[in-house]
Amino acid sequence: VQAGRLDHRLVQALQAGKNVMVMNNGLTASLNFNLVIPAGLTVQFQGNLNTNGYTVTGAGNLRVYGDYTVSNGNITVPTQVGGALTISAPTTIIKDTHVAGNINVNAATTVSNGVHVCSNGTLYVNSTLDIYGHVQAANVQANANINIYSNNTLLVFGNLEINAPAAVTVGGVIGSTTYTGALTMGGAGTIKGNGSLVVNYGTLTLST
To answer: What does the mean pLDDT of the chain come to?
Structure first.
């Protein structure tokens, strides 16, 4: 499917029960409709994808070989990204998301219970990140608050940089529920910066 005809040929192919590869190598495809991927099918973009205010839903899988920008809705299908993932609108991640590059959290984001979000690059947190599942990254730069409400942990293999006024908080109380959290430094990196690290309920594990 050519990138310029997403709304017509892509939908027809999915309705026919076919996997779809969008040949937008080196280019950015912008959605102009809500994409629904049926169970058992995969939509693969060879270049970049911007949701452009629309949503990607369904029971299938999404692969983006370039950069993926989520500008509306949630991540509700298993997602693989070969470049960077940028979240530019409030988002809840409810399916596993694996990113080869950096993750840029530019809007309030929640990682749901049982969900794995993994980055081989740096996780840049520029807006509040609430973690109820598992998040791991080579490095983390917290320019906004990170709240860890999961024992399934935030795992940092390299450096954790916390820049004021941001805080990384392990565990907390929301309403009448107490959440324990876990932060694990899994490599030879350091915790640095002029922000705050607070352990309320849970564990902080430093590598040796």
So the answer is: 94
49 CB neighbour count, 10 Å cutoff = 30
Residues 71, 45: Cα–Cα separation, whole Å: 17
Residue 68 is encoded by which pair of tokens?
């993926």
> Is there a contact between 30 and 50 (Cβ–Cβ < 8 Å)?
yes
Tokens 């973009």 found at: 45
Residues 6+ apart with CB under 8 A from 176: none
Enter the pTM of the model: 0.94
Reduced to 3 states (helix: H, G, I; strand: E, B; else coil), residue 57 is strand
End-to-end CA distance of the chain: 50
State pLDDT tens for residues 97-140.
999 999 999 999 999 999 999 999 999 999 999 999 999 999 99
What single DSSP character describes residue 75? B
> Which helix (H) or strand (E) element contains residue 11?
helix 11-15
